[in-house]
Design a protein that fits this description.
By secondary structure, this protein is of the alpha+beta class.
């Protein structure tokens, strides 16, 4: 339990700090005053002030914040503003493109973190190439003409770089015919594959087993497959959100901090038990990529109080040539924050109930 908590704090803290650091660095670069840079939420455990910015560590390791002077249209009092920082300008005084860059930098830094960690993963773990292994007799793959050694390069319009992408698409398929683009002996070919339903398992199968070929990445390929790794998790996040909107997943498929901590603990224990500590560490790095991509994408959604919601108001300002009245924007973000807090409490409650069941 203690190890799970420590791992969760390290992983979640790294993801959150990278996000807030993006806001902080680009905001400061654009001359915007930073009131406080906080790691965690709740009561302050430790803090110090440097360069006009208060740096603080909070009690609950569930988030963080980079608070700018004048953000959401709430200006600090003139006398307090001097105490915070005698230099720079408030958030609302900055140009619209400076504000857009500052807000966008948070999610962007999450993608940078994900890419850096993915490069490390590629260097140590290599890549699972989408090479067809055994083709089951009388299966959909057999009828489509696929053979052992074929390299799947595209399914529909979606480029394929890892075999796990083939597995993901196969697991989500509901019987739809798929257009498979593959290479055989250096020649490109296209075929139609209609997965067959298994009554025993209650799902559709392509009919490919023992697939995937390990690639040990060279110094250049680690960057190539590091990028593909981030792209892979972007696809998963997008597909998960689409399924959530379409009602194809239940509330038990959505996790908050408690559920993430449980995932971290179970993943580490399972990996360490089966493959050793080094593999368990690589598994934790994969979770860092997953969470960082998720946080980056979720924050870009056009939802009030999130970075995406703030960007919408700024883009409206670009189009109108003048900002939305600060008090109106602040009310919208406050309402969004309330809804998000209620949703967070619901998800946390659901995580706890699932844990004790």
């Amino acid at each position: 339990m203690i190890r799970t908590i420590i791992l969760f704090i390290i992983i979640f803290g790294l993801v959150v700090i990278s996000h807030e650091m993006g806001h902080f660095l680009i905001g400061r670069k654009n001359g915007i005053r930073v009131v406080e840079f906080a790691v965690g939420m709740g009561p302050t455990l430790f803090s110090f002030t440097k360069g006009g910015t208060k740096y603080s560590l909070k009690l609950l390791p569930l988030g963080g914040a980079c608070m700018f002077d004048g953000e959401d249209g709430v200006e600090q009092e003139r006398e307090n503003r001097v105490e915070v920082s005698p230099e720079g300008k408030s958030f609302t005084e900055a140009g619209v493109w400076a504000r857009i860059a500052t807000v966008f930098a948070g999610p962007f830094f999450n993608f940078i973190l994900a890419f850096v960690v993915a490069v490390i993963l590629s260097a140590f773990s290599g890549a699972d190439l989408p090479v067809v292994g055994t083709v089951t007799e009388n299966s959909a793959a057999s009828e489509a003409g696929l053979k052992t050694g074929d390299v799947i390069t595209k399914i529909g319009r979606e480029p394929i770089h890892f075999y796990r992408e083939v597995m993901l698409i196969s697991s989500l398929n509901r019987g739809e015919t798929m257009e498979i683009t593959y290479e055989r002996d250096g020649q490109k070919a296209v075929t139609a594959l209609s997965p067959k339903y298994s009554e025993d398992d209650g799902r559709y199968y392509m009919g490919i087993t023992n697939a995937g070929v390990y690639l040990e990445c060279n110094p250049l390929q680690v960057f190539q497959y590091g990028f593909y790794e981030v792209e892979y998790w972007v696809k998963i996040t997008y597909k998960s959100l689409r399924m959530l909107v379409m009602g194809q997943v239940s509330k038990d498929d959505v996790s908050g901090p408690v559920g993430i901590a449980q995932l971290v603990g179970e993943s580490y224990d399972q990996a360490e038990k089966n493959y050793g500590t080094s593999y368990a560490i690589l598994t934790m790095l994969e979770i860092v990529v997953l969470l960082s991509v998720n946080l980056g994408i979720m924050n870009l959604l056009p939802i009030p109080a999130l970075d995406g919601g703030r960007l919408v108001f700024m883009l409206v300002e670009v189009i109108r040539g003048k900002p939305v009245p600060p008090e109106k924007e602040g009310m919208v973000h406050f309402a969004g924050l309330v809804v998000l807090m209620v949703l967070m409490v619901f998800i946390m409650y659901n995580d706890i109930m699932r844990l004790v069941r």
